[in-house]
Amino acid sequence: xxxxYGQYGHDPNAANNGQSDSNNIDKRIEDIKRVVTKGxxxxxxxxxxxxxxxxxxxxxxxxxxxxxxADDVEEQRIRQLANLWxxxxxRVARELGTYMDLISWGSDEVWEISLETRWETRSMEIVSEPxxxxxxxxxxxxxxxxxxxxxxxxxxxxxxTRTRLEGLDEIVSCSACNxxxxxxxxxxxxxxxxxxxxxxxxxKKRCATCRGRGYVADWSTTKEKKxxxxxxxxxxxxxxGGKVADVFDGIRQQGVPIPNPMDTDxxxxxxxxxCPDCVKGEVDCTCGNGKRVCEVCQGARTIPCVTCGRTxxxxxxxxxxRRFDLRTQTRIIGETPIPVQQLVKANGxxxxxxxxxxxxxxxxxxxxxxxxxxRATVDMAQSE
Length: 384
Hints:
With 384 residues, this protein is of the alpha+beta class.
């Protein structure tokens, strides 16, 4: 009996469990209703605030703005700066400084230090010049470049300078001509002659009459009579074609295989005869032996040495080359909520500007410069 009763669900505690589940469901439903009601109320309030603000903005847009008057010079300056900024920024209303309300403002004293330092670099160079007969003394010992006292430099952005060192001149033999005063001609490399540019050393060159073909057109068999203007036009075309053909022939002689469209074969126009001015398209070159006398040295093989001026000697002296570079440092002194990038772009009042070529002392600030600003400047200069 006990098993049968439990099988068909006649447990006395089952009724109590079902009633508690029903109460929990009702409670959850009430909680959900309460949350939904609260959320709807908050959304309604937000929509109302947005609508109120939109109405205020619409009302303000319908009414013309009233310009604000500045009460003092500082307020006028602030409004002008706001106008300059708003006119350059398309995302902000124009003339913002004229119509905005200033609730409060304050002033912070900020100093910008810009220090430019000049750095000098020295190097020694050996310079040669022709010997002019001037006697030189015994060379002095060579010192490091920074041990020489050189003329002072004027100006922060000084150009490169060269200073000749006295007492270091040396007379030596010219290496370009081996002390002879004459150097080999660079045009003919000391031979006195060059390869003939017309025949390229072959002693034969192309015939200008037949253009190297060995035959010309036989005009005696031509019975056609040409009008005067047609004959003149053909002469002009022939002259232009000859010049173009000469250009192409010059290119071919350099080893470039290029055809000449202006040079037409006379055999394609009619009968031909052997060229009366050449043999197989070639004539003797005027050079005779494939050589020409060098135009630079006139066959002498040597030319006056330019390095020593035909004296066979040169004077070597030493020069110190000074180059100057500028290095810039910037530092902001003071506390302000304005970003440093914006402060650098701002234009303030210039208090002190000078080029100093002497030692800086932190306890001796210039007139108008605060002590902390001057000490920071000296610290920047000493840290270089």
